[in-house]
Amino acid sequence: MKIGIGNDHSAVEMKQEVMKFLQDLGYEVVNYGTDSTESCDYPVYGEKVGRAVAAGDVDLGILICGTGVGISLAANKVKGVRAVVCSEPYSARLSRQHNNTNILAFGARVIGIELAKMIIEEWLNAEFEGGRHQRRVDMIMAIQDK
Fold this sequence. Notes:
This protein starts with a strand and ends with a helix. By secondary structure, the protein is an alpha/beta fold. Strand 1 (about 1-5), helix 1 and strand 2 form a beta-alpha-beta unit. The protein has helices at about 10-25, 40-55, 70-75, 90-100, 115-125, 130-145, and strands at about 1-5, 30, 60-65, 85, 105.
């Protein structure tokens, strides 16, 4: 499985640790983020990962900025993206099981690396349950076509 990762200047160090963590788990990782700590604009990286996920260039995406909020908002503007911001593992797991999220976001200024790893593992190990949830995901995705 191929995972795209994006970040802004506030999350360079965390991104590097997350990339190593994912690679150690056997995932292929594509870096769409900045490697510089100089101030930059997080929407650029949210959009890059969002477009890569929507196009099928990567299977899933992970985004990191200061809070995870801004970068996820940018990704969610891309048709086909269902990005979620999570600061704990339970919501990450349920976002995959019930909402079939394809991008996970979190904040480097909100959580530490060990919690980030727990959140990532829960998210990656969860599977979409379909059924009644598919109807709701379809409803969410139909909004972008209105």
